[in-house]
Amino acid sequence: MSQKRKAQRARHEAQVEKKGKDVVMWIIIALIVFALVTMGITIYGMM
Question: From the centroid of its chain, how far is CA 16?
Answer without folding.
Answer: 12
